[in-house]
Amino acid sequence: MIKAPQTPDEKARLAALYEYDVLDTDAERVFDDLTELASEICETPIALISLIDPNRQWFKSKVGIDAEETSRDIAFCAHAIHDREIFEIEDTHLDERFHDNPLVTGQPCIRFYAGAQLVTPDGYAIGTLCAISDQPKKLNDQQRKALQTLSREVISQLELRQNIKELRKANDHKTEFLSNMSHELRTPLNAIVSFSRLMTDELSLLNHSGKTNDTSYKKFSGYVESLEYSSKRLLSVINSVLDLSKIEEGQMPINLSRVCCEIFFGQLYKMLRVKAEEKAQSLQLSINEDLPDFIVIDEDKVARILINLVTNAIKFSPAHGQINVNISTDRNYLNISVKDRGIGIGDEDQARLFGKFQQAKQGENQEGTGLGLAITKALVELLSGEIKLISKIQKGTHVAVKVPLNDAVDIPFISRDQTFAPNFARDKRILVVEDNEINQVVAKNIFNNIGVDIQIAESGERAIEFANKLPYDIVFMDIHLPGINGLDAARIIKSMSKNTAIVTMTADAFHDAEVGEFADFLDGTLIKPVEQNQLIQTLNKFIPLSID
Question: Are 417 and 267 in contact (CB under 8 A)?
């Protein structure tokens, strides 16, 4: 027996093999199919995808044998990787290199071998696709050609496998980056939005009390109004980018609820009509008589779709223009139609309008990120719906959305837009875990604004120390904390007091990806900036006012 020498490019060849990260992985159907095809075409009982590492040949796929690997010293494939042509041994008993090889003298009793090299795009032979028989044999030209073709397909599948792995890694990095950006952007924005809201409330109280100097009050009121508008605008931009990324990552869930059509569309109409009247426009809502009293939809997403479409129509319509919204149902579909008589969209712009960061040329001076329609389309498709746009320059635009209705009848009716009156016990112990000093001040003011005293813990360790001394009724826990993170702190606090409700209060829009195994220790989530209505709803739920 003659042992095959190492290849001249052995170091680089092994690096190319390791790059695929395929050694010792589970069987995969796509490779097994290629091996079976090689066995049938070459008319041999055995076929292998064999990869050669420093000490062995390992079989990624195999037909006709049970072995997972053999020593490289006795491997036929170790010889085959030296030759770029088909390496064929018609009768091993007549070849001095193999006649006394253990694989010839013992199982699987190889008499015939033909191997096509698996050559990477950079030219390194990492193994073979081989056909083996226990009888002497010779491949014909068609079989040789087919074996080489199949060997190239093996490499193509390894390349595809590697590309998918790289894409997943890139997506993981993207999600991690967006998660960090979400936290870093929302943390200071939480203070800006919250303080501007608090100042607006204070100004309103001063105005009603008559304790204002007209000139200074109006000037300061204008500053606060501009601050609040700008902060909301920035928050809207951040939310748009993050929402689109969450949809692309498949991290946006569908939450169905039973919706009262009169309340749902009525509230949306009132809100949007105010926006239209600010531009002296007329917004008309028409609801088909066949629309049922209740429908089962994802309320938040359908509301976002309608708001985006109408806001777009308002933005690109002239003063005194008219916008018509029609709501109807047809064969278990909810139909939303928005028509305007605005500037319209050209054919060239229509083709790209649903792309990210795209706006019609006619609207280049308009405010916006160009994400509205991209998000609208993504939300419609997430709900398995359809969206169509018809528009002509200076004639107006018509957008039609079709979203399937769900027939689940056991989903309760919940109005998410309703204002919640405080109905919680004010004598309960509440802990807010927040490391950012400015957001600590924000939290104190928000809770004080609804008549609640809180304890602040600046770290997870401090929160655990507080909870260990005296259990809290509810803990609002930031996730990103120095030292022990919020999720680990939540688990420890929950283990000390199972009756303590723990609500994450985070600036990370991708928090769902982090929670994972910690979900059992958490009772709810609030995303910063926290709306006062959401906070009251949460307190009502976890520390309700007892009725004697």
Answer: yes
